[in-house]
């Protein structure tokens, strides 16, 4: 049997060192990647106004894993997620969601990808104010002309704890409840991967914990893949893995993070090299 080669630059960050001798396991995991960035560069503008938002980022996001992305403001976190999700084009490099190569898709292909393979959760919830919670949850699928699996829909509603709020409009819901509606909306279509950009950024710590527990459970119990940007070490500790970005590059990674190890890593990354000796 000929083993598939991994593409140059698609280096697994993290676990590759400890298991690199086990080629079969490595190939198996590669097949598991729900999302992959290979040497991704993103340049905005040109001349004086040019900003290099991503400088050769390579990362794999394994299926059924919860990954947090951290880093200073402007380090490229949102840009990376948007490029992975096909919401923004890359300047160089390639991006794949499951077995679909995103780079190179035409507009129709991108629309289909965003509709069928990715879910989004935003800091500002992004619910439609005139629709009820239930209508918001079902909207992306009804636009696509699809119906959710009934049993799965019931599971999602129960897990987010929204059964008695389904007829309410967003303005009649708390921030935490609105974000749980947004989580249900992302989850109900069972996308290949859910991207969440600071999903708890507008929530108090209790509502934030509810949303994070829900996200973690959807990974642990239902095998969902989630990539979440956060500034909060406590939120990052809910993830299986944390990837740290600085100035458009991946600079560190933690497996099985705790709030303390995340804080330590952030402090180290904050310290200029000359102070570190
Ligand atoms: N549409 C755009 N046009 C020009 N520059 C942009 C655009 N979007 C992002 N940038 C720049 O790219 C860099 C990375 O931005 P990005 O939004 O990815 O950062 P971030 O890590 O998500 O920051 P934050 O934590 O503040 O959300 C920044 O310097 C930003 O100003
Ligand atoms: Mg951002």
Quick structural overview:
This protein has 277 residues and is α/β, with parallel strands linked by helices.
Plain-language structure description:
There is one protein chain. The protein is α/β, with parallel strands linked by helices. It has a domain at 63-88 and 104-269: Rossmann fold, CATH 3.40.50. The chain has eleven helices and ten strands. It has helices spanning 16-19, 23-32, 77-84, 107-116, 133-143, 150-160, 175-187, 205-220, 233-236, 259-270, 273-276; strands at 33-44, 51-62, 66-70, 92-97, 100-101, 118-122, 193-197, 226-229, 241-246, 249-255. The strands form two sheets. The protein has a six-stranded mixed beta sheet with strand order 6-7-8-3-9-10, sandwiched between helices. Strands 2-1-4-5 form a four-stranded antiparallel beta sheet. Helix 5 packs parallel to helix 7 (175-187) and helix 7 runs parallel beside helix 8. It is globular, with a radius of gyration of 19 Å. Magnesium ion binds at residues 77-78, 197.
Write the layout of secondary structure elements.
Blueprint: H1 16-19, H2 23-32, E1 33-44, E2 51-62, E3 66-70, H3 77-84, E4 92-97, E5 100-101, H4 107-116, E6 118-122, H5 133-143, H6 150-160, H7 175-187, E7 193-197, H8 205-220, E8 226-229, H9 233-236, E9 241-246, E10 249-255, H10 259-270, H11 273-276
Parallel strand pairs: 3-8, 3-9, 6-7, 7-8
Antiparallel strand pairs: 1-2, 1-4, 4-5, 9-10
Helix pairs in contact: 5-7, 7-8
The chain binds adenosine-5'-triphosphate and magnesium ion.
């Amino acid at each position: 049997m000929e083993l598939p080669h991994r593409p140059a630059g698609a280096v697994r960050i993290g676990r590759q060192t400890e298991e690199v001798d086990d080629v079969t396991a490595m190939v198996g995991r590669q097949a598991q990647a729900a999302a992959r960035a290979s040497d991704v560069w993103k340049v905005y503008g040109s001349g004086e106004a040019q900003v290099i938002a991503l400088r050769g980022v390579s990362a794999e996001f394994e299926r059924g894993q919860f990954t947090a992305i951290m880093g200073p403001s402007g380090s490229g976190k949102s840009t990376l997620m948007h490029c992975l999700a096909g919401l923004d084009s890359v300047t160089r490099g390639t991006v794949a969601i499951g077995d679909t190569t995103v780079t190179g898709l035409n507009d129709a292909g991108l629309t289909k990808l965003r509709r069928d393979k990715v879910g989004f959760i935003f800091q500002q919830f992004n619910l439609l104010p005139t629709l009820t919670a239930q209508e918001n949850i079902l909207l992306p699928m009804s636009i696509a002309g699809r119906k959710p699996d009934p049993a799965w829909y019931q599971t999602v509603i129960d897990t987010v704890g929204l059964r008695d709020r389904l007829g309410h409009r967003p303005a009649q819901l708390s921030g935490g409840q609105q974000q749980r509606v947004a989580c249900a909306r992302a989850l109900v279509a069972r996308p290949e991967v859910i991207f969440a950009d600071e999903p708890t950024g507008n929530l108090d710590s209790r509502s934030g914990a509810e949303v994070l527990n829900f996200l973690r459970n959807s990974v642990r119990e239902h095998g969902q893949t989630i990539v979440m940007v956060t500034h909060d070490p406590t939120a990052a500790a809910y993830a299986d893995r944390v990837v740290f970005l600085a100035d458009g590059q991946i600079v560190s990674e933690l497996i099985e993070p705790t709030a303390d190890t995340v804080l330590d890593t952030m402090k180290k990354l904050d310290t200029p090299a000359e102070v570190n000796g």
